[in-house]
Input
Amino acid sequence: MDMNCRLCIVVPCYNEEDALPVTGPKFVEHLRKMVAEGHVDKDSKVVFVNDGSKDATWGVIKKLHDENKEVVGLNLAHNRGHQNALMAGLMYAKDHGDVAISIDADLQQDINAMSLFIDEYKKGCDVVFGVRNSRDTDSFFKRTTAGAFYKFSKWLGCDLYENSADYRLMSSKALEALSEYEEVNLFLRGIIPTLGFKTSVVYFDVSPRMQGESKYSLRMMIKLALDGITSFSIKPIRLVFLMGVAAIFIAVVMLIHILIDYINNNVVQGWPSILASIWILGGNILLSIGIVGEETIWKQRNDQGIL
Output
């Protein structure tokens, strides 16, 4: 491993005009400290990605760039969401550095853990996951829903680290592999574990937010969870398939029941044929969706080399 690796610290930002004047200089200061201690190369950068903010975030980033040679700013034309902004920064890092560490703009995640990420990289790890020591700084609702999401995701077969975050290190080699994915609804916590590189884990503490409020609303968290569940588990499709099988089984039982009633001359005119037709057609539709869905998923996984 290159002992003087070029590091890109990737920081997605959305409406962070209150936080960035405080946290931005801290990113630069810490990067300079890592350079001085010999952890990373002097050409390392802090990459702020403005995700189409509606406030003065981009102006703050430009000011940081003007005052610090280590700062790079990327400005997305529209708000594309946290995962897409993060992806844009990582793709920049792929072409301009040897390794990238992604972290949130509010600096709740312990910035001092970056040196531990670099140590793991120098030991030969291409991906280093940041995992929270605890969720004590979260509200009861957020702790409960996050725990339920990770347990449900594991049940569905998603390969996730519990209490992991988008605070992680990736080498340029891992970033190159990530760039080959064609996912539309990005869920990087689910994609990155499937890349197949040597990985490690670094545990870190979470502090209260310094300035401003969290921009990750309940709606955004639900959307991220749904993207993860629908993108990285085959179980929902299999449940649809099983529902189709169950519907056809019920239809067959109903037909037998109708036949018995017909023999015994105990049939209400019209309803048996309508009800049986609904169950048979519904069952076949669900069965067909399940078959097509599973075939599509296996084809995609085969194309991506996951199988």
